[in-house]
C-alpha cells in the first residue's frame, strides 16, 4: 500500500543535509510519496527505509509474463473499477484440450487455436493460450499432446495434472515456452516450485477455499518464487463472482500480499454453451487472469474478445485512428470524398459502409482526439474551420479532382462554415446513420451522372 509523505519522512534520517536535492527530508519524502524521486537519491537512507519503501511500491497485484518472449502479461492492476483509472492487462483466453480426446479432435482444436483471428477496430486478436489437461488418472500421451500444442500454436500453455511426475515430463518437454503449471497444493508446492523455476514456468496454486489458497501462496512466497497464479476451485457462477471480487478487494484495499497474483480458472466442462459464456463473461468483467474455455467455439471467442476489448480500453482515452486521408477500395481522383472523425468505432463503421456500398472513395479523417461526431462537434474539434484546415494541410486538393465533400448528417450545421473556408468546394450533407451510406451513395452517384 502506498505510504504518505509523513510516513516516509519518519523513515528518513531527518538531518536535512540537502544532498538529495531537496531542502528538507520532509520535502524529499513528499517527492517520494508523489513518485517524483527515488530513495536511492538519499545516500543516508537506512536498509530498513529501503526495504519498507521497496515493499510499499510493489504493485498490489504482481505481474506475470508468459510466452517465450514474455509478451503475454497478466496482473499489475491497481483499481477495482475501470473508471477509476483503467485495467491494464486483459484476461487471457485459453482453450482446453484433454490428453484423452481423440487425436483428430486434438489436432482440429490445435489448428483452430493457431488459425483463429478476429479483426476489430484495426487490431488483430489471437487466442492467447492452450491448456492441456490430464483426464482422470490417465496420463497417456499428456507429454506428447503438450509438446504438440506448443509446436503447433506457439502459444504458452497451461499444463494441468494432479501428478507432479506427469507435470514434470511435460514441463521439461516445453521448456522455453514460459507456460503455467497447474496446480500446486500445500503438499506439492515444494516439489513443483523447483520444477517451475528450473524450467522457467509460472506455477498456479490451488486449494478448496480461500484460506487454503492463502496458506499455499504464502508458503510459495517464502521460497522467493513470485511467478504465481491463484487457481480457484469454485464452480458456481455466484461463487466465481464473489471470490474474484473479494480477492481483488482484499489485495487492493487491505494489501493482502499472498493474494496479490493473477487468477487462473478452468470453466466447468460439463456446462452448456450459455453457462460457459456466462462464466467467461464473469471472468472478463471480474478480474480474471487466465480463463480456460472447455471448448473452441468461434462465435463464443468473438463475443468474449469483443467484450474484453471494451473492458480493457482506457475509459479516459478513446481508441482512435491516425488522422489522414484513407483510400477506401480503389478510388480514382474523381471518387467521392467523405469526412468523419478519428474515433476508431466511427472510422471502421463508416469505412465499412462505404465499402459495402460497392463504391470506392476517399475518407478524410482530421484530428478529433478520438471523439465521435457529435462529441467532437460539441467540443469544437470537428468544425468547418478545422476540417478545411486539415484538407489544405494534407494537400487533398492536389490528390483529387472532385470538389464535393460529404459531411455526416449530424453536423449539417457546419456545411456553410466549411464552404466558406474551402473555396471552390461544394459540401453535401450525408446521412446521420452510417447504415444509410449505401443508399446515399447510390443516389449521390446517380444524380451526379445525370
Ligand atoms: Fe534528508 Fe537524505 Fe535528503 Fe539529506 S539526502 S535531506 S538525509 S532525505
Please describe the topology of this protein.
Blueprint lengths: L4 H7 L13 H9 L13 H11 L6 E3 L5 E3 L17 E7 L4 H13 L1 E4 L2 E4 L2 E5 L8 H12 L3 E4 L3 H10 L6 E5 L4 H11 L2 E5 L3 H13 L5 E4 L5 H18 L8 E4 L6 H13 L4 E4 L4 H14 L12 E5 L8 E3 L4 H13 L4 E5 L7 H6 L5 H10 L2 H4 L4 E4 L7 H7 L4 E4 L7 H13 L1
Parallel strand pairs: 3-6, 3-12, 6-7, 7-8, 8-9, 9-10, 10-11, 11-12, 14-15, 14-16, 16-17
Antiparallel strand pairs: 1-2, 4-5, 13-15
Helix pairs in contact: 1-2, 4-5, 5-6, 6-7, 9-10, 10-11, 14-16
Bound molecules: iron/sulfur cluster.
Question: What does the model show?
Answer:
The chain is an alpha/beta fold and 450 residues long. It is built from 17 helices and 17 strands. It has helices at residues 5-11, 25-33, 47-57, 103-115, 142-153, 164-173, 189-199, 210-222, 237-254, 273-285, 298-311, 344-356, 373-378, 384-393, 396-399, 415-421, 437-449, and strands spanning 64-66, 72-74, 92-98, 117-120, 123-126, 129-133, 157-160, 180-184, 202-206, 228-231, 263-266, 290-293, 324-328, 337-339, 361-365, 404-407, 426-429. It has an eight-stranded parallel barrel with strand order 3-6-7-8-9-10-11-12, surrounded by six helices. The termini are far apart. The model has no long low-confidence stretch (mean pLDDT 92).
The N- to C-terminal Cα distance equals 71 Å
Q: What is the overall shape? A: flat
**Widest sheet: strand ordering:** 3-6-7-8-9-10-11-12
Counting DSSP E segments of at least 2 residues, the number of strands comes to 17
Q: Helical proportion?
A: 40-55%
Major beta sheet summary? 8 strands, parallel, barrel
| Beta-strand percentage range | 15-25%
Averaged pLDDT, please? 92
Number of helices: 17
Poorly predicted segments: none
Q: Which small molecules are bound? A: iron/sulfur cluster
User: How many whole angstroms does the radius of gyration measure?
Assistant: 28 Å
Structural class: alpha/beta
